Amino acid sequence: MITTVTLNPAIDREFFVERDNINLNQYIYHEQNIKVTPGGRGLLSAINLKKLGYADVQNIGFVGGKQGLFFEKMVQEYGVTTNYVYTENEMRNNIFVIGKNPVTYTHYNDYTYRVEPNDIEVLLERFKRGIVDSDLVMIAGSVPEGINFDIYQKLIQICHQEGKEVYLHASGEELNRALKEEPQVVAPYFRHINKILDIRTVRFEDYYRVGRKLQEAGAVHAIVPYHNKQLLFDKRKVYILSAKNFRQRNLLGASDAYHAAFFNYIFRNGFDFVEANRHAGAAALAVAERKEIFLEDRAQVEENLARITIEEVEVDIDEFS
Amino acid sequence: MSLVKKYMMRTLNSVCANENVAEVIKLMYKIEASVLPVVDKDNKFLGTIYSENILKNVIPEQYGVLKVHKLLPEVNQAVQNLQEIKSREIKEYMSPTKIAIRETDSMNNVAEIMLENEESRLYVVNHEEKLRGYISRADLLCYLLEMEEVEK
């Protein structure tokens, strides 16, 4: 079994309109112009893993209120096993308005979800018994209001007690604290501002410093997004991953496909950090160049492998320290 | 042959035997279920807790035949009874019956087991008896409807 953790899931509602006019009452008459999908980092990777052919993929986390039941039903449609702690408070709804002419993209990100201390206790208990059969655990995304910064640290502690390796895709203070538990792979992401570990990332050197700092703080391996590329921090060497002839069509889903394909590779072939990233990059490419946000199958990853290049980065570390 | 894995709900919503009655009632309310699987710390299926099991211990026997003017005192009695048991562990109230099915079982067998045992849900376990989800009566009916349409 593969387990993904999503503590702050959302119902994503996308509205496709001809023109996104403010102060105008618009009508949508065709159902293809409204897309309602379950969202949240971790969950989307779980759905991709199902598409890649895994029978047993689980998503653990919180869902809230009456919308939680609706959300769980939507997730079930993808064949992902749900293991949710239901909270009193209603969960999040993210609104996307996508205009066609001119092309616009408006996103209202709902950060109102709140969980109570008792919900967290229940989650930790559920997590303990939820991962007993897991071969890999991915912890991803933001956390709701009401949760302490050490939540990911606690979850990783539980994983390590059970002998499970952890892949962490996080940001902010939750990430900083979690590093103390030395997760196997850390892939930070940017939230609101271009900062990771309090380092503002502008130049290449800043991204490089982020990766090294992640490792100094505990990450065994790190994957740092660098514009449309990735910096890969192996135990000793650093690589840069890029794609040939890349043409972006889609802003959603590429990073979730990346993480799913990374898991897919190590699940099948054992831990090879560089090769797993090559497959991950091919998967992200497949999604970023299409409209659909999920992978179709494994063949789609294979098709794009040749377009991924990974080169070692020679950096004089002292120069940046 | 239609298999359970096609119709089952893949959810691990469950409670442990040492959780208390109040927690279980709250969970039943939140997920709109009157029955929950009980598992151990390794997710092994131990049995089932029905809302009826709890109600039997809370509501006085004569509750069902009460006249309206007597209802209020009886409700007060039920509240008091619940107060007394709400902190107790649900292992006292669960049904340790372990009728469970596998993902690879035929849906035809499910119909038989469900009707024979008068269960509203049958829990699905793996080869190690660990919980994997459930099949409800609605799932069974959906399957039967599909069969009926195929036979037309």
Ranges of chain B where pLDDT stays below 50 over 5 or more residues in a row are none
Question: How does the helix and strand content of chain B classify structurally?
Answer: alpha/beta
CATH topology of chain B: CBS-domain
Strands in their spatial order, largest beta sheet of chain A:
5-4-1-8-9-10-13-14-15-16
SSE pattern of chain A, N- to C-terminal: EEEHEHEEEHEHEHEEEHEEEHHHEH
How is this fold's topology laid out?
The complex is a heterodimer of chains A (321) and B (152).
Chain A: E1 2-6, E2 10-17, E3 34-39, H1 43-51, E4 57-64, H2 65-76, E5 81-87, E6 92-99, E7 104-108, H3 117-130, E8 136-140, H4 151-161, E9 165-169, H5 172-178, E10 185-186, E11 195-196, E12 199-200, H6 204-217, E13 221-226, E14 229-233, E15 238-243, H7 254-269, H8 273-288, H9 298-304, E16 308-312, H10 317-320
Parallel strand pairs in A: 1-4, 1-8, 2-6, 4-5, 8-9, 9-10, 10-13
Antiparallel strand pairs in A: 2-3, 6-7, 11-12, 13-14, 14-15, 15-16
Helix pairs in contact in A: 1-7, 4-5, 7-8, 8-9
Chain B: H1 4-7, E1 15-16, H2 21-30, E2 35-39, E3 45-50, H3 51-58, H4 68-85, E4 100-101, H5 107-117, E5 121-125, E6 131-136, H6 137-151
Parallel strand pairs in B: 1-2, 4-5
Antiparallel strand pairs in B: 2-3, 5-6
